[in-house]
Amino acid sequence: MTLDGDSNSPLFTYFWIIENCPKLLIPSGITSPRFIVENLENTIWHLLLFTIDKLSFGISIHRDTDDGPEIIKVNYQLSIAYINGSLSNERKEKFDFPKNSVRLNNPISTESIFIIRKNEFLINDTLTILLRMWGISTCISQPNVCYARSRLGIEKRTFYWRIRDFSSLQRGQEVSYSVDSTVPVTMVLCFSNDNDEIVRIKFPGNKDNRLVVFNFKIIIVNQRGNTAFCRTENDCFNTGDSFVDFLDKGRIIKDREYFLPNDVLTFRCELEIGTGCIYSAIESYRYLPQSQRRN
Q1: Average of pLDDT values for 150-179?
Q2: Which is higher by pLDDT, 1 or 254?
Q3: Torsion from C-alpha of 166, 167, 170, 174, nearest 10 degrees
Q4: Closest Cα to residue 221, out of 154, 166, 157?
Q5: What's the pTM?
Q6: pLDDT tens, position by position, 97-135
């Protein structure tokens, strides 16, 4: 037997192309299309890209349940590809993969990939993840290459939310607005429970275990239609109630000519809502696995 990991040429290379990914707006992990590695005893694999927190994300490699050996030794290299073709990680990792196992990599800075060095990693809002695999082989095999593509769903919503008879609202009262989207997002106008009565918007936590992630920019519009006060935030999850504070009610009523034409408080809302993966498929193999060939 020879250790193909000692060679510079991998037995298998997997390109995972993720489209519509200008930022990491994923409500949960994105699973790549599953792929078969005949050169590694017909084992089946997939990758998972997932958010760790607002600052970082991870990519993991998974071996699925298959007809291969109980444990397979693999050298692999998992990295994000620069648009010039070079790799963010040149280091090989060694791991013994049992069936239905996972191997995590080190956390990756979200800001580095999607903000600071975005022009180096993303082209046309497309991110490419590259997996290269080496292993123990009993015969000389032709290196194989697989291309897979996924597309993320991001819904952009811009709308005006007008709160009529604002001055008559009391502490404890709420006004709700359901955003027109394919995933549940609700906004609730309410007041803080202290003497200041801060005007706030609540994004209620999910009640049906459906995770949503979104960015927002919410503006209080003055009587001329211009910005009077603005709040923005990125990577908001609906795992629990979240609150966005604006101004105290007394100040708004005191300057009613500026804030409340006809006793109407107007918000201009811009939301980007991550709806998850809307397309995912293997596009091609250099050599189609035997199990997928037509007789």
Answers
A1: 95
A2: 254
A3: 0
A4: 166
A5: 0.83
A6: 999 999 998 899 999 999 999 999 999 999 999 999 998
Residues paired with residue 227 on neighbouring β-strands, in sequence order: 221
Closest alpha carbon to 154 in 270, 31, 33, 32? 270
The percentage of the chain sitting over the pLDDT mark of 90, rounded to a whole number, equals 70
Residue pair 276/182 in contact by the 8 Å Cβ criterion:
no
Residue 195 neighbours by CB under 8 Å, 6+ apart: none
- Residues 6+ positions from 202 with CB-CB distance below 8 Å: 174, 187, 188, 189, 190, 241, 242, 243, 244
Find the mean pLDDT for residues 74-86: 92
Q: Is 257 helix (H, G, I), strand (E, B) or coil?
A: helix
CA 192 to centroid of chain Cα atoms? 32
Rounded Cα–Cα distance for residues 9 and 133 (Å):
9
For 111-177, give the DSSP string: HIIIIITHHHH-BTTBEEEEEEEEEEESS----EEEEEEEEEEEEEEEEEEEEETGGG--TT--EEE
| Torsion angle of C-alpha atoms 202, 204, 205, 211, degrees rounded to 10 | -100
